[in-house]
Design a protein that fits this description.
- The chain has 367 residues and is α+β, with helices and mostly antiparallel strands.
- It folds into three domains: 128 residues, Rossmann fold (3-Layer(aba) Sandwich); 147 residues, ATP-grasp fold, B domain (D-amino Acid Aminotransferase, Chain A, domain 1, 2-Layer Sandwich), CATH 3.30.470; 63 residues, Dna Ligase, domain 1 (2-Layer Sandwich).
- The chain is built from eleven helices and 17 strands.
- It is globular and about 60 Å long.
- The two termini are 42 Å apart.
Length: 367
């Protein structure tokens, strides 16, 4: 009988998307073939501490939005270096006496937002010589920072909307912003996802509060023009030769696709997969999705978000390098519509992670 792969699921995290990460992790764990994989669940609390979730209890819990890590005896840590057991747990004597967690074949980070999707965890896993699912350090960091991402896309001549970037130290004039971007406009933290901290500004009186809200989550904010168009998304899968799924459409029943519309309001948005688009537009979206993925140095997986305007123009909004895996998430649903089931998708992502790790091991690190 073929040996099971030990897969460590990393979930939770310090970001504002902590709870969504848990829901995604539950779905991934449920979709993994028990004949192929042994799941090692590791939850990260909101303070950034790692906890071994023995038996994946938290992933089987009923409350999807409440996660509490209280038993410090189940703490876990990563020990960088060339070792067979880079993830360890404390013994009864604490971290002074380390107990082995056993070998880990691959890590599956299901961490949305900062401190998980931005290259920080990816760098730690590379130091620990652990294969992991998804983009590497560079692709993760670039994909998370909307400012850097948009500049790279602009330089690559990939169509995007107009935008401005400000830090706390910058002087900001509403009149100049309005002159450049028009009204309405969107104000966002540069490094966050799931529409957290995002505001739509439709009148001058809303501007200051929206800026303040975005700066609650990041020291850099992005202000974007309002683009009138259909909200289209496309999933990408692969390393050196990525492929794109059939696109899907988000039909929003609110003012915009907010956090509540995504996760809390059942009537907030409707998903149409595949999207009802002309064949030429479908082809353009899929080709552009792969082009964006490559330009932003992504690997493993990614979801690219677009606006398709009435005149057929396709504009890129952003990329998500660890897309949601909840029951209503677009990434797995678009692959299902393309012919790859949820469990098959998990298999492919794990194999892509292992293949990349094997390839990197052949690279020289010294003269």
């Amino acid at each position: 009988m073929k040996k099971k792969l030990r897969v460590a699921l990393l979930f939770g995290g310090k970001s504002a998307e902590h709870e969504i990460s848990l829901i995604s992790a539950r779905n991934v764990a449920a979709a993994m073939d028990e004949k192929k994989y042994e799941v090692v669940a590791i939850g990260i609390d909101k303070q950034g501490r790692w906890h071994l979730d023995d038996g994946a209890v938290l992933l089987r819990g009923k409350k999807q939005s409440k996660v509490e890590f209280v038993d410090t005896r189940n703490a876990a840590a990563v020990m960088p270096g060339e070792t067979a057991t880079p993830i360890v747990r404390p013994s009864r004597a604490g971290f002074g006496g380390l107990g082995s967690l056993g070998s880990i074949d691959v890590v599956f980070p299901i961490l949305h937002g900062p401190f998980g999707e931005d290259g920080t965890v990816q760098g730690l896993l590379k130091l620990a010589n652990l294969p992991f699912v998804g983009a590497g350090v560079l692709g993760s960091a670039v994909g998370m920072d909307k400012d850097v991402m948009k500049r790279l896309l602009r330089d690559a001549k990939i169509p995007i909307g107009k935008f401005l970037v400000f830090t706390r130290a910058d002087k900001m004039s509403f009149a100049k912003v309005k002159k450049t971007l028009g009204m309405p406009l969107f104000i966002k933290p540069a490094n966050l996802g799931s529409s957290v901290g995002i505001s739509k500004v439709a009148k001058p009186s809303q501007f200051s509060a929206a800026v303040k809200e975005a700066f609650r989550y990041d020291n850099k904010i992005v202000i974007e023009e309002f683009i009138r168009g259909r909200e289209i998304e496309c999933s990408v899968l692969g390393n050196d030769n990525p492929i794109a799924s059939l696109p899907g459409e988000i039909i929003v029943n609110r003012d915009f696709y907010s956090y509540d519309a995504k996760y809390l309001d059942d009537q907030g948005a409707r998903l149409e997969i595949p999207a009802k688009l002309p064949k030429a537009i479908v082809k353009k979206v899929r080709e552009t999705a792969v082009r964006v993925y490559k330009k932003l140095c992504c690997e493993g997986m990614g979801r690219i978000d677009f606006f398709v305007q009435a005149n057929g123009r396709v504009l890129v909004n952003e990329i998500n390098t660890i897309p949601g895996f909840t029951q209503i998430s677009m990434y797995p649903k678009m692959w299902e519509a393309t012919g790859i089931s949820y469990s098959q998708l998990i298999d492919r992502l794990i194999q892509l992670a292992i293949a990349r790790h094997r390839s990197e091991k052949h690279l020289r690190t010294a003269n």
